[in-house]
Amino acid sequence: MNPLNDILQSFTPITLAEMDGVKLMNRTDRKFCFHITLLPAILSKIHPYYKILEVGQNRISRYKTLYYDTANFNLYKMHLYGKLNRYKVRHRTYLESNLGFFEVKFKNNKGRTIKSRVNQKEVPDGFDETIHTFIQSKSTLNSESLIPAIWIKYNRITLVSRESAERLTIDLNLEFIKSDTNLCFETLVIAEVKQDKKVSSVFFNAMKENNIREGSISKYAMGIAMTCDVKKNNFKEKLKTITNIINDSHHTFTSH
């Protein structure tokens, strides 16, 4: 018996093609972190209100992402100091669907996330003219200053609201790979609600009932802070909270 798989199989499936209407490339994001032991009960609670993405009969999909930054981690530092109008640059591989994209994410000063991407099945061995042009057209970054920074892998459950333009992603088995460092977090869940605009959500109610408050750190910033010799004082409390969640199911974020 696997309670998580059992509940996932009970959701009504939705295909990638059917998800086209909720790509939400321009959206608001709200994140929550909690211990994996809480997940089956939470999924059972929200079950009537969501469909689940199914790719090739898989309801949990594997993601592999290579993030880029400058040699001085300037993009990481923008997160560290809470700067808006900031970027993430990455190549993401969707293993189950055999797709790959080169992506630029922009968090603007209104708190909205705008994602742009181009088809790029394989991880680029250096940037060609197409990628240079794409980065320069979608950001203020100097594409020639960007180098591979860290690999991040995880498994993702994607739920789509039956009632509104909302996607709920639930990430499991987070793994950071940086040079000879490999960190795995099997008990941490990072859930993110992605909406066209901030409205009520069944998932928010489930979080409130479980005393799980909104709060997180980007997977990229978390990975760099945990694997590199960089400044991280501003993330100290968030990293401590995440460590407590990983080690003890009774810990959750206590503030935004």
Description:
The model has no long low-confidence stretch (mean pLDDT 91). The chain has an 8-stranded antiparallel β-barrel, surrounded by 4 helices. It contains 7 helices and 11 strands. It has a single domain, classed as Hypothetical Protein Pfu-838710-001 (Beta Barrel). The protein is α+β, with helices and mostly antiparallel strands and 256 residues long.
How would you sum up this structure in a few lines?
By secondary structure, this protein is α+β, with helices and mostly antiparallel strands.
Task: Provide the descriptors you would attach to this structure in a database record.
eight-stranded antiparallel barrel; 11 strands; alpha+beta; 256 residues; Hypothetical Protein Pfu-838710-001
Q: The biggest beta sheet, please?
A: 8 strands, antiparallel, barrel
Structural category is alpha+beta
Helix content: 10-25%
User: Which residue ranges are poorly predicted, with pLDDT under 50 across at least 5 consecutive positions?
Assistant: none
Q: SSE order in H/E notation?
A: HEEHEEHEEEHEEEEHHH
Residue-averaged pLDDT: 91
Q: How many structural domains in the coordinates?
A: 1
Strand content: 35-45%
**Ends: how far apart?**
36 Å
**CATH architecture label name:** Beta Barrel
- Give the full name of the CATH homologous superfamily: Hypothetical Protein Pfu-838710-001
Number of strands: 11
Shape: globular
> What is the CA-based Rg, rounded?
18 Å
Number of helices: 7
* CATH topology type: Hypothetical Protein Pfu-838710-001
